[in-house]
Design goal:
alpha/beta; globular; single chain; six-stranded parallel beta sheet; 12% strand; TIM Barrel; 265 residues
Length: 265
């Protein structure tokens, strides 16, 4: 009886994946952890709780990317830096020295055009600029925006392309975006059915085709965190991502003492 009990205990324990299996990424380069400035974390306390939970999953450094969206989340460098300063102070007061870098997730809209003209983009470490489109309709300005960002000397990244349903039946558009020099970022939640079966299907197709360059949690709230924890427990994340040249770890080198405490751009 003892032999059988130990055998089944071993089988059960071996099926549980290590909680910190995101450690190989080092950097979460897309999240909404800055407090009180968009539809993400509502307070410094919540932000710290989220960061501590993500650290237990293995992530070590965070590039915070609050929305900049005309008429909805009218953020700018000043509002983002204020939220970053509050979060860094809260972390230090709690004895947590987690490196935090502030950038933004820029919606392709008239407001972004103005930021590009003024060279006021919130740039990620390495000169990357994170952009997104509406989930409802394709932005006709996508390729023009990609070119304008490149003309400023920056490298555009399109956030969660798998979530744009209007592209799901046109795989060639993803190739066109990549050929234009725009990198692609996968949401970890898309590896499950969190956003739906179709989103998971196209995410897996892009992943297996080697199309993704970065991975982010895109964490906004507690439901996202709980879903991420389940994904880490259920899926062999590192193995799944091997088919794409994921560059998250390369961002770690930019987190020196001066940059990790200031907004880029």
């Amino acid at each position: 009886m003892n032999f059988l009990t130990n055998l089944f205990k071993h089988k059960k324990s071996s099926s549980v994946r290590p909680l910190a299996q995101l450690e190989f990424l080092e950097v979460d380069m897309h999240n909404h952890l800055l407090p009180g400035i968009d539809d993400g974390s509502s307070s410094v306390k919540n932000s710290i709780n989220y960061i501590q939970a993500l650290q237990r999953l293995g992530l070590k450094k965070f590039i915070c990317t609050p929305h900049i969206m005309a008429g909805v989340h009218p953020n700018n460098k000043s509002t983002i830096e204020e939220a970053q300063v509050a979060l860094v102070k809260g972390l230090k007061d709690s004895g947590n020295e987690t490196p935090i870098f502030a950038a933004a997730e820029h919606m392709i809209d008239d407001g972004l055009s103005a930021l590009i003209q003024q060279d006021e983009l919130c740039v990620m470490p390495g000169g990357y600029v994170l952009i997104e489109m509406s989930y409802l309709s394709e932005s006709k300005a996508l390729f023009h925006t990609i070119l304008e960002i490149q003309n400023l000397g920056y490298k555009p990244i399109l956030a969660h392309p798998e979530r744009y349903g209007y592209y799901h039946n046109n795989f060639n558009i993803y190739k066109q975006i990549k050929d234009a020099g725009c990198l692609l970022q996968l949401n970890l939640l898309s590896l499950s059915r969190y956003y739906g079966v179709d989103t998971k299907a196209i995410a897996m197709t892009l992943l297996k085709s080697g199309m993704y360059d970065f991975v982010g949690t895109d964490l906004h709230h507690e439901r996202h965190l709980e879903a991420l924890q389940k994904i880490v427990e259920k899926y062999p994340i590192r193995e799944m991502l091997k088919t794409s040249p994921i560059l998250n770890q390369s961002l770690s080198d930019y987190f020196d003492n001066s940059k990790s405490q200031g907004i880029a751009g």
